[in-house]
Protein: Orotidine 5'-phosphate decarboxylase
Amino acid sequence: MSFDVLQEKIIAKKNPTVAGLDAKPEYVPEHIRKVSYEKYGQTLLGAADAIWEFNKGLIDALYDVVPAVKPQAAYYERLGWAGMALMEKTIRYAHEKGLYVIADIKRGDIGSTAEAYSDAWLGATKVGDVLCEGFNADCVTLNGYMGSDSVNPFLKTCKERDKSVFVLVKTSNPGSGELQNVPAGADDTVYGLMAELIEKWGAGTEGKYGYTMAGAVAGATHPDELKQIRARMPHTFLLVPGYGAQGGTAEDVQYAFQANGHGAIVNSSRGIMCAWQKTGKDGLDYQQAARNAAIAMRDDIARFTTIA
Amino acid sequence: MSFDVLQEKIIAKKNPTVAGLDAKPEYVPEHIRKVSYEKYGQTLLGAADAIWEFNKGLIDALYDVVPAVKPQAAYYERLGWAGMALMEKTIRYAHEKGLYVIADIKRGDIGSTAEAYSDAWLGATKVGDVLCEGFNADCVTLNGYMGSDSVNPFLKTCKERDKSVFVLVKTSNPGSGELQNVPAGADDTVYGLMAELIEKWGAGTEGKYGYTMAGAVAGATHPDELKQIRARMPHTFLLVPGYGAQGGTAEDVQYAFQANGHGAIVNSSRGIMCAWQKTGKDGLDYQQAARNAAIAMRDDIARFTTIA
Structure:
């Protein structure tokens, strides 16, 4: 139920981190790209083929270290339908390796459309008499600006198929405060109100670790606000972007966890995927480099956070 | 520049409406589905094939009546990669028929990711030395909750390739007020602040009709707020969902326009796509029914709004 599956994987691996899988051609070592471009030309198909090899290699190198992966939809969409086929294959392969998959899609739309997004990413679509699964992730990120009817269709699917969502509260980017930090309601902020709404939307769906199916995104780059969000959202599992490349540290992200080290997962994308760019071996060691970076991140976070 | 292309098409057709293309299998008449399911089975490929035939037929029936179409990404994503291939083909076909294409994607993410989304939907992606176009719409919808750095990458592409965006302000769904209508800032609301931000983000990109590249979404289901938004956003082109099936009327949507009838476009999806369901001919007349509905909508809106 709810985030139990993810929390259990985190406990088993003593590692509350998720490896981002940003499908950027420029992150793929030259020797892999070369083969794909020879096969398909410098086309979206060629790029998707190269990234497929890279994603598989990364998953093979990481699956016994990290509990989860997070493909970022934007990079897959950038490769058109070939990228979306790559997204499907990547999610399937990650599942074969026992990983929890968070599709970072940040969707949000009116009820009937939210239902379609929910079918696409967590559920299934009826074609004639047949139920056809689409991307079949375990969890997605959502934008709650449109209100409860943009989130509820996802929560319905979560209940039916044991999945979860993360709704944006306070994001890690420099401009996040322009709307999110404006004073709002009674002595609150826009992101504070969003935090309250998410706790309300999720109420009643708590799993055995006490977290609802409606998680929240709270960036590592704002540690004071992270602390505050953790306190205000006791039943909410947090996804924490912004560690590493964006500037968040292990000291910062400790505030996302509860006293027992539960209730949060920290993302790193470039830090793991692009670790090979710092070893001077032209990416021939990209798997070892990614694995080392993931282990270093796990150990870095463990300096401040102990998982019971 | 900016929304000039769209405003010109609206003036030429004396029709400020956009036909939604929601790729739902259940909207497609039985005789079309039957052929596709025989060819591909009751699969996502089969559904995508049926909707491709339907979309083509709708575009053929509508292209000299409406200035624009609006495919809703959720319904295409629901069909996995086959749906995304369908989205690409649909946009290409609509362009062949001279239509302006608004991809309704409601995306929003941190800067580097927003860049990827912008490449995917409005721009192009570099693969090796080659620039590859993805979905290549004319305009997309965005969610600005994350702030200026989630919108600016799109505006950069808009300037380079003469495209535009619509950012959510006040949406048409029942739950829209939960966050959007909360009092915020100095005597304002969350959606009011978003309106101010959008006017600011777009400033300096006005085209010959006076509208910036940063349009806004404002629902027909809240006419008082629509009136207020129109007044507060004098340089902003508005996309108005909620007419018809969701309850908005021609009387309501008149407030989205400026005195010369410029500056807004009203969407109808089900009302046009599903018009055949009300004629009792099992969808054999779906093209004529869609065309009649689009003409009726144009004439209905003209009762209150005259385009100079």
In short: Chain A touches chain B through 75 residues (CB under 8 Å). The first helix of chain A runs from residue 4 to 13. The two ends of chain A are 20 Å apart (CA to CA). The CA atoms of residues 106 and 142 of chain A lie 4 Å apart.
